[in-house]
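User: I'm preparing a small set of examples for a lab meeting where we compare how different chains pack in three dimensions. I only have the primary sequence for this one, and I'd like the structure in token form so I can line it up with the others. Please keep the answer compact; I'll paste it straight into my notes.
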Amino acid sequence: MYTEVARPQQLSAVELDDYLARGWYRMRQALFTCRFVTHAGRLVPAIWTRSRLEGLQPTRNQRKRLARIRNRYAMSIGEVVLGEEHEALYARYREHVGGDRPEDLHHLLGAQPGIFRTRLLELRLDGELAAFSLFDRGERAVQSVAGIFDPDHHRDSLGLATMLFEVEHAQQLGLEFHYAGYVLPGEPAMDYKLRVPQLEWWEPEGHRWRPIAELDDYVLPDRKLRQALSRAEDAAKASGVVTRLMPNPRFDLGAWNPALESCLGHPIVLACRTSPREVLVVGYHLVQRAYEVLRCTPGTLQDASGDPTGELVLVVRERLARSRSPEFVAQALKRA
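Assistant: Understood. Below is the structure token output for the 336-residue chain.
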């Protein structure tokens, strides 16, 4: 669907490279890929990125900034040994930048050391931890997991600096790629990743990496999804069926929790309520370019103790029809 999750028990460096090269990324001790994320309450397309390391040179301004940071801060790269100072700095960083982030480093990395070959990069000023980053090593690539900096040093752009130092380290090792995760078009939270030279982005339809300059001409997946559903909405209206476009912010529940795999996995749908206990929805698959009509019932999520959270979800009970034709879908809704 739009989010996929893999939980390998073991992962070689070559296997990590293979996942990364197909637009996957780390989440705790799992790997995932997605087309969309819910950010600040909005559905936003996720565009996966990487930098090609051969011949990569930071910009002139970046080189000057990195030189100043080297002169001021002591840098080290080594095994991951995290202590109270790392947790304290992460807590300050998390409060400063906001957003939906793991509550601590334990939740960021996963419950226990596992399948990834993770390294720790630190920047210290007079012995005090000022910034650190975590990155995973593959056979031909590294993936940047997190960059944490002290808000008191934000003018030195230490978050970007640690990522550029990761790039430099990977080049020194003779590696080919640096993966920094996704960017979110129209949302500035991840735009710092766009400042790394020789950036490429993953095009899922063509299963290929393309220069970042070509992203401007790409029709983003949320627009494609809305266009397709708009055609189905027009066809339904012509058939006398009333529908409305409805976001589904928890579309990835089933991917992350197999016990919830019956929850609706489309990020946006056309909804047609037939009763308080039943909703017909039309979803669209971007890859297959096909619609599906689903009979769903509303449900309420529960927390770990079994108490309702008040968050409503749609549970798929029956798949009624599948077609590339919006007119066929409209008739399926009318018959149901």
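A couple of notes for your slides: Residues 221-335 form one domain. The chain has eight helices and 18 strands.

User: Perfect, thanks.
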